[in-house]
Design goal:
By secondary structure, the protein is mainly alpha-helical. It is built from five helices and two strands, in the order E-H-H-H-H-E-H. Helix 1 packs across helix 3.
Length: 109
Amino acid sequence: MAGGGFHAQNFTISWPTGEFGGMGFEGAVRLGFRKEMEAIEDPVERDKFFRDKVAKFYENGKAINIASVLEIDQVIDPIETRHWIIRGLRSAARPPQRTGRKRPCVDAW
């Protein structure tokens, strides 16, 4: 999950198996190419069209392809995950110091 964008985070990484898209690829093809699919009368051809489009979405959504257009910072070996998490925590801005604990408003319950 990218939290609505890839540019607000300190860094964005993925394993090589990562897939990126606005939604599930099958659903995206069904919604985005609905009219084109409805226009194909032959069910075998329609299914081939669907499978070809889904395959293209998977190819374009691979982590390495997303990294190549600078949408994510790095594709990492899964064994490096712990290192990257530690690095990310160390590079994150410190939260503001708490000055006191506020009680929740019990009247609203």
